[in-house]
Amino acid sequence: MRSERDGHRRSDGGDGEFSSTDGDDEPAGDPVRMGVLISLAVGVVGITFGVLADAGGLSLAQSMTMSVLVFTGASQFAAVSVITAGGSVAAALGTAVLLAARNVLYGPIVAQWLDGPLLRRAGLAHFIIDESAGVGAAQTSVRASRTGFLVTGIGVFVAWNTGTLIGVLSGDLIGDPTRYGLDVAFPASFLALLAPHLRTTPGRVTAGVGALVVVATVSFLPVGVPILLASLAVVPGMMIASSGGGGGGFGRFGGSARTGGDAERELADNEGVSGENPAGIPADGEGLS
Amino acid sequence: MTWAAIGVLAALSYLFKVVGLTVVGGRELRGPAAEAMRLLPAALLSALVVVGSVTTEQALALDGRLAGMAFAVVGVWRKWSFTVIVVGAAATTALARLAS
Fold first, then answer.
1. Which residues are B55's β-sheet partners?
2. Residue B36 phi/psi, 5° resolution?
3. How far is A16 from A277, CA to CA, in rounded Å?
4. What is the pLDDT of residue A175?
5. Which of A42, A68, A98, A135 has its CA 20 to 30 A from that of A151?
6. What's the domain range around B92?
């Protein structure tokens, strides 16, 4: 597996930070330690989600059901944010589903580390998130990748749900969210999640066009619909990517800059495929897969 | 948020994960569809930033949230942790409202 992966590596001199083309010589972080550290960080993000979900009118049962069963943080934040802004359930659902679609891209990578019966692998699929895929990809052996994936996936699951519970329960103590500026917590969260995507030219173009779509249409479209419409911004992004304008660009396991830099670098390395399709898997970031 | 919506979201979220793992298998996804999926979060998250920071209902609105977002921009640029960015942005907005 490793050799195949190395076959995809490319020299990416444009990004000094990722200039290595021979990842096998690099020490990979201990997968267990990395997974635990990331899980702890995600737990705190889970508290944020719980507080915002509570402020957005979700019941404790609804918030917990989301965190247990949906278990993909950016989508959960997005759904609650659209509802809080006064959007329809359909707009909230559409935005969340579109954000969750990227998890399809992690499956083929994770599949390289898992074996066993189909049913077991299907069960483990629930733990595919930005963080678990990132830590797994940071390892130099299949065995370590599997360990990293499992420790991080299950650790984040426990931490995310514990955090959500704490957040919802403490949300009751907070009252009017605007009093503490909590209404800005959503866009600030989304900005932090967006940051890794801005490191590639196609990502920047897509983000810029997406923002313009909202500004241009917010006054006459129902609340939440401009966000759905902004998804069309991937078209100019794809045109830039296919024209080679995205040189040096690939996704980074962005949020882990604070929790597991090796995972970030390795996932990026892992995904650098070719010049005409430079984007890797842009992970949403810490705790919010 | 309705229970039905949560159910649909849960089912589709899992479907995305399990399809990638079991159906696609160990092959790498390529082509326009994969590229679109890679870029979708950039489009949606950017739209969510704009909606959350400078709109109220169906209108553009500039208010105390801008102070918090300025803090968040600095935090993202300086690579502060998620928690520091979000809590700091909220506190900055709260202070801006107190001052105005």
1. B60
2. -65, -40
3. 20
4. 66
5. A98
6. 28-99
Question: Residue A16 pLDDT > 50, yes or no?
Answer: no
Answer yes or no: are the C-beta atoms of A266 and A149 closer than 8 Å. no
Residues of chain A with C-beta less than 8 angstroms from the C-beta of B80: 258
**Count of CB pairs separated by less than 8 Å, A with B:** 351
Q: Which amino acid is at A272?
A: G
pLDDT at A176: 67
Report pLDDT for A185.
Answer: 87
Contact B46 A194 (CB under 8 A): yes
What is the Cα–Cα distance from B97 to B63, expressed in whole angstroms?
9
- Determine contact, residues A91/B51, Cβ cutoff 8 Å: no
Tell me how far apart the alpha carbons of residues A58 and A79 are, in angstroms, rounded to a whole number. Answer: 11
For residues A82 and A78, what is the distance between their CA atoms, to the nearest angstrom?
6
Taking an 8 Å cut-off on Cβ atoms, the answer to whether A66 and B10 are in contact is: yes
Interface of B with A in 29-48 (CB under 8 A): 29-30, 32, 34-48
Q: With a cut of 70, say whether residue A259 has pLDDT above it.
A: no
Greater pLDDT, A194 or A242 = A194
**Does a structural domain hold residue B39?**
yes
How many domains does one find in chain B? Answer: 1
Residue A45 confidence (pLDDT) above 70: yes
Residues on chain B touching A72 (C-beta within 8 angstroms) = 13
**Higher-scoring residue by pLDDT: A6, A235:** A235
B78 to chain A nearest CA, in Å?
A: 11
Asked if residue B73 is part of any domain, the answer here is yes
ipTM for the complex?
0.92
